Amino acid sequence: MNTIGPYRNRQETYPYFSLPFCRGPKESIEHAHETLGEALLGIELQYSGIDIRFKVDISKTTICEITVTESVYEKLRSATANQYWYQMYLDDLPIWSVVGELSTSNEPFIWTHKQLDIGYNGNQIVKITLINSELVALKVGTPVTFTYSVKWHASSVPFERRYDDYLDFQFFQHRIHWFSIFNSFMMVLFLVALVFMILLRTLRRDYARYNKEEGLSDLDRELGDEYGWKQVHGDVFRQPTNPCLLASLVGSGAHLAVVAFIALMLALTNQLYTERGGFISIAIFVFAATAPINGLVGGSLYSQLSGKRWIRQFLLGATLLPILVCSVAFFVNLIAIYYQTSRAIPFLTMLAVAAIVLFVIIPLNLVGTVLGRNLCGHTDYPCRVNAVPKPIPEKKWFMEPGFLILLAGLLPFGSIFIELYFIFTSFWAYKIYFVFGFTLLVLLLLMTVTSSVTAVGTYFLLNSEDYRWQWTSFLSGASISIYAYIYSAYYFLFKTKMNGLFQTTFFFGYMALFCTCLGVLCGAIGYLAASRFVRKIYSTVKVD
Question: Phi and psi dihedrals of 317, rounded to 5?
Fold first, then answer.
């Protein structure tokens, strides 16, 4: 047995024996968390009391008998009123069923007999079907007998395909899903074409104008109408405000991008959906193993920005995401403990996560930071920085950084919002997500769209003689998180029937964490793309 909970709130789960079910012949029930991912997801395996032997049919057999007291009646009545369902595992294959139902007069009835039909192929279990029967009315003072039966039958389903019955191919491979991929691909083509148009036509015209001005006398140049991105060449590589935080965010975002890519590749090749908590376990492992990337990118960038407190930047970059994740998890965990749900993270699991951060992630991040500072931390800007900052001229409201930031997040969000629906449905509803190839393709399209949008936005910003492109480019990519969080609120209100303090807190807490990580990832991609774009255009212009 695993967990039990209300049907409308998938994450509001409780230990199976929190309801007064009989425990069978065993007086004590073992608890088992086989992996770190299972412990974090609240998957707690317990012996059900049902004795099953391989290929041995069992006729109707009594598990145990309970007497319905006032307390038992109230608990089971509440469970049936809230459509409680439970989950079982047999040979790692999940089984779901409901506890009972209410009659038209609101009287509680529970299912007392479990019939297990098990298919086998050779010496391996390949199919399980649970059929409930014998609906019994609950009345205080009356006994209720729980029974089960088992029937085995040969099956032609190969062991490698035994999970196919759990996968909703029609839902995930719907034509809308394919259309969203095609739509995102066309958007990528349009944006890439737009970037090339800027590079090949607009910049060529700018170069021609600037080169023409090179032949003018100083007086003619001063009397001429000078404008455009070349005029800020002495400030475009000026150190931005709070370079420590910027470098840490970019390093963390680059780290997340690598983790997402590797984890999706592993999920695509290893069918992680067949393992309980498999994707979370592999994501944690990859995150820890690739920690040097965070230090490499963040440390080198901070050194290029002429930062002096590199130890402070290293500590901030190494702990930024872990502290964010732990803060949200701690807050949600307090409510989970109050509700006594199985989602409450055990103390030993917290210690395990803390040990991974302290003894794996931080040391590896330090190695990456040292390598980044020494290998890639040299300042090699194509333009020197003026001693005195140039005043930023007034411009139209739609060229202000704030407007560009908000506008830049729309197109990346438009390229993934349909995929977000499928991801949300698999996590918050009752679908098993298995189309990781779609997710990997959407991730690559998202990175391309974000890079193109931030490059275009950076050009418009610099062309208005505003050199504050570093934070603008990062926040332009990160602004997708705003739209993703708004969409998650829409999904909660109109696509689900979730209710209650715990489920609401769980949903919005972890969606805030997901959207923040998505924003940091896209922000880093946007900054790196804009940085390369800026270096490219200024490296080909002659400046005094």
Answer: -65, -35
**pTM exceeding the 0.85 threshold for the entire prediction:** yes
Is the pLDDT reported for residue 215 higher than 80? no
Question: pLDDT tens-digit profile of 265-309?
Answer: 999 887 777 787 888 999 999 999 999 999 999 999 999 998 889
- For residues 195 and 200, give the distance between their C-alpha atoms in angstroms, rounded to a whole number: 9
DSSP letter assigned to residue 34 = -
Please report where in the chains the tokens 């899903």 appear, as a residue.
Answer: 177
Q: Per residue in 113-142, is it b (16+ CB within 10 Å) or e — as a string?
A: bbbbebbbbeeebbbbeeeeeeebebeeee
Q: Which has the closest alpha carbon to 3: 106, 76, 84?
A: 84
CA distances from 45 to 18, 83, 92, 96, 531 (A): 13, 22, 11, 14, 50
Q: What is the DSSP string of 126-151?
A: EEEEEEEEEEEE--TT-EEEEEEEEE
Measured distance CA(140)–CA(152) in Å, rounded: 37
Asked whether the beta carbons of 118 and 127 are under 8 A apart, the reply is yes
DSSP letter string over 426-462? Answer: HHHSS-----HHHHHHHHHHHHHHHHHHHHHHHHHHH
Average pLDDT of span 223-238:
74
SS3 call for 523: helix
Cβ atoms within 10 A of the Cβ of 406, count?
A: 14
Tokens of 125: 């279990």
